[in-house]
Design a protein that fits this description.
transport; structural constituent of nuclear pore; 8-stranded mixed beta sheet; single chain; 16% strand; 5-stranded mixed beta sheet; 34 strands; 1397 residues; alpha+beta
């Protein structure tokens, strides 16, 4: 903003937007009865500022108290511009006691803040803690602080220590005091100077609050000094004092060791009393300073006189006297001068005249008089004047905020309801309390609206008016125009009600001037407003005509000639402004809102003005234009003053460079309270509104210049060309800029749910912008905030304060905080931060960080056609908005448009610059695409990721690394979307082998998990065949066999490519792992199927090639990423040597299949044995099968692996023995395993038992599986004999026909002597020819037969055993005889054989 400043000020109202009352009510009951016909005092207000409120490092920095009185109530509010104060407002109600005008006096001590209150019947002293004692540390870092009023409810204000009743000393009631003054002595005593209605001044003194004492009362009068310990002196004994010396206004000042009480009396005289001496030291007649009319004034008593004091070290004590004379008023400025012998006189400094009627309040500083009036139209008037150096006597202007318009203008295309609501809830027009009161009246007081949010209040207003409208409608049908008229009628009624209450709340009560910071406030009935310096351009546009005529120069132009041209041009602009009202103003507003050409709209407005120039205003303007010597130069000066464009971004310096911690903390809080935020941002709104009107009128005037052409241009065509090509476009651009700033300064922010803020923060962290100060979500205090307030509070304030104080030296922290200078700088820098043509982009960043998407979209829309700065950044931000609202395709379009500006704009460069160092070689645009792709991925829009990545690839022609990353992204999202073919195509296009391999691995895994194996097998995998096989193999060996089917996939992969040997190898390895890892029935079943598949594969190959390589034992494969193995000592184990390769042929696979099949058979018979059978060898499996009774399977397995059948026969024999001696249960259980074995024959002739069937099975096995020397029979017999079981006859007959000697030995081994003897007898008989066929003897003993033999060793052993036992004597003899007979026959046969030879 322009540096040129004027002496005028502008009022900014700090409207609250909370409906809930912030006041805490405290009632003081003094047990007084209301006085009959009590005096009605006018409402009043005032303020107090802390001595150190102008010091940055003080806890009371920018802190003050203001108060207002009404009837028996006083409202006290402590306010801070830096920190939000809690419990800072209290409403004190003193029953039946009216507050005197100006009856509140506040002073501070080192430890306390003392509030002295004077009412019609009492005085009060409130002792509150000083802020510096509430917060001992200088480092106050809280965002909120407790006010001194926090514990006011704990004070017992009716106690004698805090209050005193002004009753008559003898019990006689006295008249109420008319005015008062109060002060605190150095000893802590509270003194109250009271002027009674009948004259006289009484001084009531309360003892110090921290000590015991009595109340004293002193009466000051000219004849004598009387003192009583309590109460007022009755009027009857007071002496000869006439009402003429009634004090209308009192003031007190402590000088040196005395306290002086100044009384401005009804007789127009100023009296000065010494409290120490209790004497009147001086009487001065104020009429002496009246230039004319003293006589007529002197005869009438004064009524509206006011008195103020001001003290400064340079000028001493100044006394300001306002003489409220009929139809005129004047201020007399006097200086108190001390002479010899304790005498005093007054020196006249200045007399200032005023024509205003009703003075509300005035304040006096060391240089200025500030006055507050109400004019005849009840409009507030504030002015100030320097009483020392103002020769012309011209007051400086204060542009007071006018009341809202009495009528709301809206176009035919606008909805009346929305228009009225926008006006009512605009941040600048109505307070929440005015709307709430109007709503209660409108609803006839049926409800109380407390603690409503701003949005809720808006809804309540809408419902109230609409319900009223609906209830008044009696007809069911009426036209749209009739309904519109009804809306206007009811909404205007409610609006008038709001206007009435807003006017009441705007009633001015007093002025507050903070001498420490030079801040001036107007205290109104419902709110406090602040006076800010007015910038030069705004001053020119807002000033009254008489002020413009009186100005010979202006700060906007150094050259006097140029200054006069500028003033003349502004006069013309004011005439244009008066003409452009109502519909024409709306047309210009609508053109800006709808992004139409401002120049074209100005032409149309000018046409309307020319067509309806009934008052010859345009002619007056033309006449004034003739007086402007160089209009283009004057326009250029004004445009330059309004242009806020800067080359650098504000607030780039940090707060912590070379400053102490306390200074940094204080600067971080400066102007950070909700009040300061509201005032600063409403000032920005006011400035932008004024500037927008200024630019509008200037643009219309420029169009008029074009129409007039050479008639007003002395320079001819050159100036006309400059106007057309330079000045009009610049003015149009400024108009659009200020309209935009006006719009955003009035746009309310939206409340955002916490989850939306969290989601937005996640998106910003993806962009690596979450640490940016502009992106930090707000911790709002105002409810609701405008978006500019949101920006200022969270981002702009710290940047602005940083820039202001970075330009000052280290002593700047000790310098006073000068409010006019500071707030002007703050407003200037804030406007520059908001200015759309500046390079900074913090405002849109802040809106994005706080999820203000609707406001941000409108901001970008209004920028679109005319702003050429940060175009790409705006598109990017708009894309963010579309993402948040679910319009992904629009967002993608915006992101693509922003890409062209990546290397040109700071925000986008910062966005790209956040990439890591590895991306240094990547083009900025590709880095930008990467950020956006991450954002789209985080939001969950894979289709848009694919589109943008495809676009990015076209720009990464020479960047293989970026291409690979982009193709990888495309592959990933195609795969996630189920676009398998497109994912495969992206994989093939990837130029990076490692990324290609990663994608391939992911493709395999995902398609397997989705069971989309058909796609996986059918892809061609050009140049990637071995990699695919390797990936599937590694996955197959790495994952659980039951949850994934990678082996089956690999088998299908090889079968599809007719690679049968590989397919067989895969299935054989699969079967091996199943047997080792999945020892369940299901696993065994799959193992059998795997071995079958492997066999089928090898049978499809020519026999010469029907072999595979044995997979490594244990299935231990080195996989990428596995940790190295260590030995017991923790050392790395040595790498195992190359293992020997083993070739497996078809027969080897068949053997494995048989073993697997037998395992399955066993598991099917007994599932509990599956875990054991899974790892059992062939020999172990035979034992397990025999144990389970699966003898057929056991025999088959034994034959396949060429194992002895002995275990099978022994096992079956044992089961037969168990059946032989078992019970019925054993018989029943036997049928289970008998059924699992196939018997050779079936006997149907008789019922067969399980035992019979078992023996039959054994017999069939012995018959089907003959062995050398009948070893199977022998093992069976051995088993039977070992268990003491009798030998079946069929078994004995079968074995003795093969090997009778072995049978004999078995009998002897088990001590079966009788059976052995019987066998020997039979065998001897067989040799002798009796039953020789049963022993396998072809020819018995004879001379011609072959040689025969007997097992003599066994027979001798038998004979020995028989001989030793007495019980076997007969058998022994019989056997002995048989042997002797045999020997005889052998001898005979031998001789015959010898003879025959």
């Amino acid at each position: 903003m322009a540096a040129a400043m004027e002496r005028s000020l502008i009022e900014i109202c700090g409207f609250e937007r909370e409906t809930a009352s912030r006041f805490r009510d405290v009632t003081v009951n003094l047990d007084l009865s209301p006085s009959p016909g009590g005096v009605k005092y006018p409402d009043s207000a005032g303020g107090f500022y802390y001595e150190e409120s102008g010091k940055l490092l003080s806890v009371t920095s920018n802190r003050f108290i203001y108060w207002s009185t009404s009837g028996d109530t006083v409202q006290l509010v402590e306010q801070s511009l830096d920190t939000n104060l809690l419990n800072n407002a209290v409403r004190l109600k003193i029953l039946h006691c009216s507050l005197l005008p100006g009856g509140v006096h506040i002073q501070e001590t080192l430890n306390n803040v003392i509030i002295l209150i004077v009412t019609s019947q009492s005085i009060h002293c409130m002792v509150l803690p000083h802020p510096s004692r509430m917060y001992r540390s200088d480092l106050v870092t809280e965002l909120q602080m407790q006010s001194i009023f926090t514990d006011v409810g704990k004070l017992r204000l009716q106690d004698p220590a805090h209050s005193y009743l002004l009753s008559g000393a003898l019990g006689v009631p006295t008249a109420c005091p008319s005015t008062s003054a109060a002060w605190l002595s150095h000893q802590g005593e509270a003194h109250f100077a009271l002027a009674s209605a009948s004259g006289g001044i009484m001084v009531v003194t309360l003892p110090p609050h921290d000590s015991q004492g009595t109340v004293s009362v002193v009466e000051l009068k000219q004849s004598s000094v009387m003192q009583r310990l309590a109460g007022w002196m009755p009027t009857a004994i007071r002496g000869d004092q006439s009402p003429s010396d009634l004090a209308l206004s009192l003031a007190v000042r402590h000088l040196e060791d005395d306290t002086f009480i100044f009384a401005l009396c009804q007789d127009h005289k100023l009296r000065m009393w010494s409290y120490k001496e209790q004497l009147c030291l001086m009487v001065a007649d104020m009429l002496d300073y009246l230039p004319v009319g003293r006589g007529e004034v002197k005869s009438s008593p004064g009524q509206g006189h006011r008195l103020r004091l001001s003290f400064s070290a340079s000028t001493g004590l100044c006394i300001g006297v306002y003489l409220g004379l009929p139809k005129r008023g004047q201020f007399c400025l006097l200086q108190l001068v001390a002479t010899e012998n304790n005498r005093y006189s007054l020196d006249h400094i200045s007399t200032v005249f005023s024509t205003q009627e009703t003075l509300v309040d005035f304040s006096l500083t060391s240089t200025d008089i500030w006055a507050l009036w109400m004019d005849d139209d009840n409009q507030t008037v504030v002015k100030y004047i320097n009483f020392e150096h103002n020769v012309a006597g011209l007051w400086n202007q204060v542009f007071v905020q006018p009341l809202p318009e009495e009528e709301v203008h809206f176009g035919i295309d606008q909805d009346p309801r929305e228009t009225y609501l926008d006006v009512l809830f605009s941040p600048l027009r109505f307070t929440a309390s005015a709307i709430v009161k109007a709503l209660q009246i409108y609803k006839r007081g049926t409800e109380r609206f407390l603690d409503l949010s701003w949005d809720a209040l808006r809804k309540e207003v809408t419902l109230a008016v609409e319900n009223e409208l609906q209830s008044s409608v009696t007809e069911y049908e009426f036209s749209q125009e009739e309904y519109r008229q009804l809306q206007v009628e009811f909404w205007s009624k409610f609006y008038a009600c709001c206007l009435q209450y807003q006017e009441a709340l705007s009633t001015p009560l007093g002025l507050h001037i903070n001498m420490a910071t030079s801040m001036v406030c107007i205290i109104r009935k419902g709110f406090v407003s602040y006076l800010l310096p007015c910038f030069a351009v705004d001053h020119l546009y807002l000033s009254a005509d008489e002020y413009l005529f009186s100005e010979d120069e202006t700060p906007v132009a150094e050259d006097p000639e140029m200054g006069r041209d500028v003033l003349q041009l502004v006069l013309c602009l004011r005439l244009v402004s008066e003409c452009v009202q109502g519909d024409m103003a709306y047309e210009m507003e609508k053109a800006l809102e709808h992004l139409l050409s401002p120049e074209r709209a100005a032409e149309q407005v000018l046409d309307s003005l020319l067509a309806n120039d009934n008052d010859n205003v345009i002619e007056d303007i033309q006449n004034k234009l003739q007086d402007i010597r160089n209009p283009t130069a004057a326009m250029a000066v004004l445009l330059r003053e309004m242009d806020l464009e800067t080359d650098t971004e504000a607030g780039t310096e940090g707060l912590d460079t070379g400053r102490s911690l306390s200074v940094r903390i204080s600067l971080s809080q400066l102007y950070g309270s909700s009040v300061a935020v509201s005032v600063v941002c409403q000032a920005v709104c006011q400035v932008t509104m004024t500037r927008a009107l200024f630019c509008r009128d200037l643009l219309i005037l420029q169009q008029l210049y074009l129409r007039l052409g050479d008639n007003v241009f002395l320079g001819g065509g050159v100036q006309l060309l400059q106007l057309q090509q330079d000045l009009i476009p610049r003015c149009s651009h400024l108009l659009c800029s200020y309209y935009l700033l006006k719009h955003v300064s009035q746009s309310l922010s939206s409340s955002v749910p916490v989850d939306a803020l969290d989601a937005n923060l996640q998106h910003l962290s993806v962009l690596e912008l979450s640490d940016s100060p502009a992106m930090a979500p707000s911790q709002t205090v105002l409810n609701p905030q405008t978006v500019v307030e949101l920006f200022y509070q969270n981002v702009a304030r710290k940047a602005i304060v940083s820039q202001i104080f970075s330009q000052q030296d280290a002593q700047s922290a000790q310098a006073p905080l000068h409010w006019p200078q500071m707030v002007s700088s703050v407003i200037t820098l804030l406007c520059q931060l908001l200015w759309p043509s500046n390079p900074g982009f913090r405002f849109p960043e802040c809106l994005m960080g706080n999820c203000q998407y609707t406001q941000l979209q409108e901001y970008v829309r209004l920028l679109g056609p005319w702003c050429q700065v940060n175009v790409g950044s705006c598109r990017f931000i708009l894309g963010q908005c579309y993402l948040a609202t679910g319009e992904g395709h629009k967002a993608l379009s915006c992101f693509q448009q922003a890409a062209t500006e990546v290397e040109k704009e700071d925000f986008l460069m910062r966005l790209v610059g956040a990439e890591n160092d590895e991306a240094g070689a990547t083009a900025p645009r590709l880095q930008y695409y990467n950020k956006v792709l991450r954002l789209l991925e985080d939001v969950g829009l894979p289709e848009l990721v694919i589109q943008l990545a495809t676009l990015a690839i076209s720009e990464a022609v020479n960047d293989t690394r970026s291409q690979a990353a982009l193709w990888t992204r495309i592959f990933k999202h195609h795969l996630d979307l189920g676009h398998n073919s497109q994912a495969y195509e992206a994989l093939i296009q990837n130029p990076d082998p490692s990324r290609q391999l990663d994608c391939l691995r992911q493709l395999v895994v995902v398609l397997c998990e989705r069971s989309q194996l058909q796609h996986l097998v059918q892809f061609s995998y050009v140049n990637l065949h071995d990699e695919v096989v390797g990936i599937i193999e590694s996955r197959a060996r790495a994952v659980d066999l039951l949850s994934h089917n990678y082996y089956e996939l690999l088998y299908a992969f090889h079968i599809n490519r007719h690679n049968y040997r590989k397919a067989g190898t895969v299935m054989f390895e699969y079967g091996m792992r199943l047997g080792r890892e999945v020892r369940t029935l299901h696993g065994l079943q799959k193992q059998v199927n795997c071995y079958l598949a492997a066999l089928n594969c090898l049978r499809l190959i020519r026999p010469a090639y029907a072999w595979i390589i044995q997979p490594s034992p244990g299935a231990v494969y080195e996989r990428p990423g596995t940790s190295p193995k260590r030995n017991h000592d923790g050392e790395f184990a040595a790498a195992s040597g190359s293992r020997q390769i083993e070739i497996l042929e078809l027969k080897d696979l068949e053997k494995e299949y048989t073993l697997a099949r037998s395992r399955l058979t066993l598991a099917q018979h007994d599932q509990s044995s599956a875990a054991i059978a899974g790892s059992a060898s062939a020999a172990e499996m035979v034992a397990l099968l025999v144990q389970a009774g699966l003898f057929d399977t056991a025999l088959s397995l034994s034959q396949t692996f060429k194992l002895p059948l002995t275990p099978v026969f022994e096992g079956l024999t044992y089961k037969c023995i168990k059946l032989q001696y078992g019970g019925e249960q054993t018989q029943n259980e036997a049928w289970n395993w008998l059924a699992a074995n196939q018997l050779s024959t079936i006997i149907t002739t008789k019922e067969s038992s399980a035992t019979d069937e078992a023996w039959r099975l054994l017999g069939s096995y012995l018959e089907a599986h003959p062995s050398q020397n009948a070893q199977h029979h022998r093992c069976v017999i051995n088993k039977l004999l070992s268990h003491g079981a009798p030998l079946p006859d069929w078994l004995v007959h079968a074995y003795k026909a093969v090997d009778a000697a072995a049978l004999l030995r078995l009998y002897l081994n088990y001590d079966q002597l009788e059976s052995a003897a019987e066998l020997v007898l039979e065998y001897v008989d067989a040799l002798l020819g009796k039953g020789h066929q049963y022993f396998g003897i072809e020819r018995p003993l004879s001379a011609t037969a072959p040689l025969v033999w007997l097992p003599y060793t066994s027979i001798d052993q038998l004979l020995l055993s028989l001989r030793e036992g007495q019980a076997n004597a007969k058998i022994y003899d019989k056997l002995r005889a048989k042997l002797e007979e045999y020997h005889r026959l052998v001898e005979t046969s031998s001789r015959r054989r010898l003879l025959n030879q």
